[in-house]
Please model this.
Amino acid sequence: MIIDVHGHYTTAPKALEAWRNRQIAGITNPAEMPKASELRISDEELRESIEGNQLRLMRERGLDLTIFSPRASFMAHHIGDFRVSSTWAAICNELCYRVSRLFPDQFIPAAMLPQSPGVDPATCIPELTRCVQEYGNVAINLNPDPSGGHWNSPPLSDPHWYPIYEKMVEYDIPAMIHVSTSCNPSFHTTGAHYLNADTTAFMQCLTSDLFKAFPRLRFVIPHGGGAVPYHWGRFRGLAQELKKPLLKDHLLHNVYFDTCVYHQPGIDLLTRVIPVDNILFASEMIGAVRGIDPETGHYYDDTRRYVEAARIEPEQRGRIFEGNARRVYPRLDAALKARGR
Amino acid sequence: MIIDVHGHYTTAPKALEAWRNRQIAGITNPAEMPKASELRISDEELRESIEGNQLRLMRERGLDLTIFSPRASFMAHHIGDFRVSSTWAAICNELCYRVSRLFPDQFIPAAMLPQSPGVDPATCIPELTRCVQEYGNVAINLNPDPSGGHWNSPPLSDPHWYPIYEKMVEYDIPAMIHVSTSCNPSFHTTGAHYLNADTTAFMQCLTSDLFKAFPRLRFVIPHGGGAVPYHWGRFRGLAQELKKPLLKDHLLHNVYFDTCVYHQPGIDLLTRVIPVDNILFASEMIGAVRGIDPETGHYYDDTRRYVEAARIEPEQRGRIFEGNARRVYPRLDAALKARGR
Model:
């Protein structure tokens, strides 16, 4: 089977965005703050928003299952305070959970966290717990920069983040390290901020001994690892300068890269440079790049085509498509096995 | 001949750093502020600092000429105010000029600018003018983030930067877009901030119509373009979403990538994805990654080896090594021709 580890609910019914806009207005004008219960989206609406979009493309592309989390750019942790983020995360996570109940064979949820700039990440634990225990989430998305492009949180290696890591280890779930919308005019959200965050997160791991402190902690770096595989020689050399172990020993028991790289040469480099066991199939469709590549006639984000064309053995391709995801997301594996898959 | 377009004076005599440390101390304690004239470095010291380092490696690697600018991480535009930066830039640029006079066949200078956070870039024009007219500089290094990792300057497409661009066009010189030390603990300087800046700068160009306003403006994006070539499909797709022309028309008359990518698969991707005319040979030695790659037994930053091994025609290799640099840096070409080269 083919598991896409990186899908966001980018096609949620418009009512969600309308509610969020009211919530944002309510920050400055509390009289306008809507209740969570005022958002009403029917199962029928959810079904429609998925069937014509993600599910249609999954069928066309032969993808079996998507790990499905709230829309990354809409997390916008920089907006409002913890209470605002908390209500918003609860709503978004519930919607992904409902999608996973409506399409239990095709979607399994991953949670966004109610992060807020300057707020102790421990405040995210109740939502994380609820999502894992009640909603069957198999992973979380962790935003290393809840400020949205100002980068004023401590690095991922800082004890600041440990409460999250402790819970991740307890539940044996990985985190995808994924920022949200940039509110810094220097950084285009999907063209700069996302890729920069991937590179930054990797380097924060490289310079630290985080995985000595948490040997079972697992991070998935999305978007093919940002700039990392392209500069793998640079990172190997920097680790050497810093007297760290070889990257395969220092980081590759804990760090994984997805295949959200939207052209053949990129996937060819990724599969040439990064050990197959550290590559997880993903497309992030319907996401940042929704068009058709005039050079190929196919969707840019139809990453299965690139992985199929990469010069790797069929058995290796199977690990990228399925085996690695089952290993890195044990709760996904357990959920699949419970259904005989 | 082989021209390395990206060399910094990373091996300057210790007296330079000592003077800078006194200058930094002088910011808080004006009584300690040294005069520029208190820095004394002899020609002999300059010669020594180059002969055993850059020049030795250039000879070993068969590189003929380096475009040589002040050490990037030492620019540290975030330290002090415009006056501090101005004195520091003048000192550093003079040293690179002196190196170019001591080794006129092997080094030609490029200037750092006395940028300072929140200060109008027009204040950099006198130093730029002096470097071009008196010192024979063939390019500048432009820092898109003089704050050192806080990214609070306007994007490169903003009229904020136009005074620099107007002078660049007047002198027909390119700018390498190169940040300096990160003082943001999120970003490792050479492992994250440099690469992020490359990606960010490219995306700032992509989202704008800067090169419509300045058709003759030329930017060199160092470090192989950050994450850009690896994600070329993503950037092509983003340009399409934004209704911009094809990247080759939108950006590739004005944007160039160097070859500071420290392993073979990276250079193979770069030469596969980016048109040869947009690739400039460079090594940035002796720089971020000074060690020997245990996988090859050669220096990571011996990028000539990778370019030699890339699957391109000899004529294309010649353009990467020399022809493109002569085209993108017309003052370099003129200086070489004046010497019959």
User: Anything to note?
Assistant: Chain B touches chain A through 59 residues (CB under 8 Å).
